[in-house]
Request: fold
Amino acid sequence: MIAGQVRRLGSALLVGFAVVVGGLGFWQVVAAESLNTRPDNPAVLAALRSQPRGTIFDATGVALARTTVANGLAQRAYSDPAFAHLVGYASLRYGLSGIEAAWDDVLNGFTDPNPLHQWLNDILGRPPTQYDLTLTLDRRLQDYAAAQLGTSVGAIVAIDPATGQVLAMTSTPSFDASGFTGDPGSAAAAWDLIAAQPNDPFVDRARNGVYVPGSIMKVATAAIGLDSGAVTTDTTFPTQPEEEINGMYVDGFLITEHDLNGLTPGLWDMSEAMQVSSNIYFAHVGLEIGQERYLSGAEALGFCAPWRIGPRDHGLSGVASSVTELTDAGCGPFVDDAELASASFGQGRVTASPLMMALLTAAVANGGVLPDPFVVRDIRPASAQNGPLDEIVESFAPGDGTRVMSAQTADSVRALMVDAVHGPLGAPYAGAANVALYGISGVETAGKTGTAQRGGNLPPHSWFIGFVPAGPDGSPAIAVAVIVEGAGPGSQSAAPIGGRVMAEWLRLAGGG
Amino acid sequence: MTNDILRILLLALQFGFLALLVGLLWNFSRTLRSDLGAASAAEATTREGIGRLIVVESPAGEPPEGRTLAIGPITSLGRNVNATVYVEDDFVSAQQALLTFRGHAWYLEDQGSTNGTWVNGHRIERPVALSFGDEISLGKVRLRLER
Amino acid sequence: MGGSLRWTEFRLLLPVLLLVPLGFVLAHIGQVGLAETGPLAIPLAYLGLVLAAHLLLRGLGQRGDPFLLPIVAAMGGIGLIILGRLPQDLAGLDALGLGMAPTQLLWFGLGLVVMVGVAVGLRDDGFLRHYKYSWGLFGAVLLVATLIIGSEVNGARLWIFVGPIGFQPSELIKIVLAIFLAGYLAETRAVLSQATVKIGPLKVPPLPYLLPMLVIFGFVMAVVVVSRDLGTALLFFGVFLTMLFVATGRRSYVLFGFLLFFGGSVLAYFLFAHVRVRVDAWLNPWADPADGGYQIIQALYAFARGGVFGEGLGQGIPLINGHTPVPAMHNDFIFAAVGEDLGFIGASAVLALAALLVFRGLRVAIGAGDDFRALLAVGLTASLGLQILIITAGNLKLIPLTGVTFPFLSYGGSSLLASFAIVGVLLAISHRSSSTP
Reply:
């Protein structure tokens, strides 16, 4: 009769209701969190429009990013274009970048460092409490570095080798984000104006620039070679002097020396080879190391994987550097020995970011321990004044770092880099980085220049890495990496900038 | 501080509302279960046998001879497709008769048919109580009431 | 029996009468200052109306199902609470210049009157079953009239305006369709469920019996094409199929109907832009978040804000940049507002109430003891149940979004009156079956 059919209909409708409850559960329980934090959620946007936001201070307490709320509209202003890429922007229209993005939940107060506070705020529906950040970077050094680059295109990264505190990190050309943070309606004009400028000012070259490293890669090759035991600093290659002139064949591929400026090639040891920046010598070192050992050595130094700049999980990312073809899984294998030999002196398919090279240098300066880089020193309650409060909610201690080479290797490489600046053969190249030239006396400088060849008739990029004080028992205070795009040989442009920045820091740290 | 206390109070009340809403459903479902219990008990008697009709004779084949017809507490018989028991016979009226189960017994009532309804060979004039095994005739069709 | 029934209904009603006023007060505290009427006027009026309906119904000797009034009173009450916390001029101020909640309360009261009137007045349903074709014709005329003289609101031709008062004929047609089909199927169900033609191994009903189905299907498709009202079309066809299945017990009809509808939908997808927009917005709303996918995305955000326990009554976001967080939050998307305020627990409870209503409606059908009444109860119950499923599933992106109201919750007189009329019929049917000795 009908009753049976009605029951079956009832069951079908019941299944329908169960499915709807399932859908309800999915959106309200399972997917709720991700929906609630989606940046295009209008409730989030509306809250942001008038949302106060913590201030970002530099290490000396100068406000770099501040929010003022006027007429229910939050306007974020940035005081220093030298910090534009690192600090980033918090724009109602264009979203977040840099530290503004990585530390968003602390700055806007949505995540309280204190879990109990967090819980109370949640259930009581209290407005979130904002927090201020103090960076490890010193505005004076940052501005000085940016001024050295001036109108040229490039980047500078400076790190305290012992702690991993980033001291300066700047990229040119820069921009002022203040114009597009507020009213979304009028933000486009300011944004478009910046976007239309040449050399893409929005790109952070310090963290995300991908460059051919050129000769500064020889420092990495030396470190890998010495640490693996494949070579010593006394190793010589009998065929090298002749190959300096005629070139050397590897797998049928001809490797040639760069212009030695009339220097007569001899049977060089590693120090001399580093001073004159011999391609042939370091090609031999690479071949001595072999493909697999070179690859694993490079990976240990930090190549082949993206960087995280701490502290904690509030990571800023940095692009992965590479010695071979880079895939999602990391560096691929070398295709042949020709690629290995080229990589050993910084050509081939090697790529490096200024951040990568600065950290490599810091590892050498720090006795072989690669420090954990971090940019935020502490968190404080939001201050209404133009300076940070004294109360500190949480301060961040340096990490343990990672040993990437033995202390002995690090010391050998240090000595090589000191020779590259001070040695008779090296002085014409990296000598321009000697801090003695910039008013600091009695301090040894370690360094290495690089000239990154580009295709066609484009002028090469100019590289320099180095650290001071670099004496046998000195404790280095700063390690830098400098790149100036299209500025020719490293000795002419990057090396003097590197020297000046290091000298400036010794002055600031000594005087302050 | 007072603001916080007010908020906690409001929060408690909001949860109270949800609890009341769920409690209301609980109240419904409890009453529902007792209602269903009664209903299924009533249905059980229906199923077990308030009875069924056996088609003893049916010259036109509708209902087919020998077929057992399940019948509910209110069963209409007639030459109307709406009838619970549809009978195809020219001598049967559209609404011939009504079988009803009242209390513990079946009753048969003629609905003013032209040719009459018969029980065990007697034409019925008013509603009559049936016993199981009684034979009902409408036109040429004969049905037997069984448990 | 009568006494215990009245007692049962009152016992079920009591927590509802506690719940709804509490909800009003909470919603008012949650967003002080928005309601134009004082916080107690509406809940007190609600209390009075529901109690009066209860006493009148039982006082007049109506012995219909005791669950129905408490369930719909709870649903209607929650609807009123939610409407009270939304901006009151959302639907545009009506002729009386009242806000949304007072207007809805007015319709709620009228709905109760209609319910009691139908429940008590429908002692003899002869005029319903005997004039089924007239009812069918009436429905058809109403439908055609809507298509011709109806006004477009939000791109769908749904409204007929008589002077300043507009109503949605589809709500009435829904009821008329159920009456017509109940009459038609009660008469022909023996034939429909027996007659078969063998095509190979398949037993199918002979073509002449499939014709009415095809006619109705054509009708439904016409609604889709001309009025662009996909939800109502789906609802009509769903009611038709469920009634056909219950009347005949043959799954082949349902299967055939589904295939037909599916084929028709696919065809409509490729033929009509407005169908395509809906379906695309369903498949991937984030592909066009500012336009096609806007409504559904905002609804999902509202659900997500609610979480497990909800934001609290009246604490859902009333306006974002001057608009409700979800467009049409007072009718098509009222369930999203319920989800936002009451969370997963509260919204599930509302769904459970709806399921309970369907359950009782079907129970009435089983107890009806007469094919016409049983089918009528099934058809009307299915129309409520399917409508709730269509709109909630649409809100939750389980099916493409189609604009139908949430019975008893959504803002709107036509929907409320029709829904209460349906409950009135169910009460009348259950009264008849309970009075059989």
